[in-house]
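To: structure desk
From: M.T.
Subject: fold request, one chain
Message: Could you run this one when you get a chance? Sequence is below, nothing fancy, just the single chain.
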Amino acid sequence: MRKNTRPHPLALSVAALALAGMLAGCTGMAAGTGGKASTGMRVTSAAFADNGVIPAEHAGAGECGGRNISPPVAWSNLPAKTRSVAVLVFDPDGAAGLGVSHWVAYNIAAERGELKAGEGQAGSNFNFTMGPNVAGAPAYRGMCPPVGDRPHHYVLTVVATDLAPGSLPAGLGRDALLAALKGHALGGQSVVGLYSR
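Reply: Done. Structure tokens follow.
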């Protein structure tokens, strides 16, 4: 059976709207750009290309078919005055279209430039904070779409902020983190990966 690798328009619209809403009202726009955020920020994953298939090792363990290893993510060309970044993995297709939060990481020093594969595991100590995933655990939760579903779209987003690393309290889930970043987000970029079983 041939897998459809084209992004589902609704899924990407939901992701784009969520990111646009979060960035609305940010204060760190570059001078002389007419209020537009810098478009030079770059986000990549060595594990998959944008709109490519995510390797199974990043899926949930057991019946989900993977090893629950968080994917690597790198960022560069951040907006001026960026001090820390947040990393989010969100599946807008999950929970019957309501979306599933797989990873919330923040208080990450911007100069790190990357999170390596596996740095989102529970109990890791890499000098950043992880908020609860859909299951309530402060860790990366591997993908596990229903068997037979079309490929789900996993949006891996990096948000640049003007906050110093360590400024935000522990325990922020996706929604609480997005609320806390309003007025502090300087820009964001995403890479989208596909996975099905």
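Reply (cont.): Helices lie at 9-23, 174-181. Let me know if you need anything else for the meeting.
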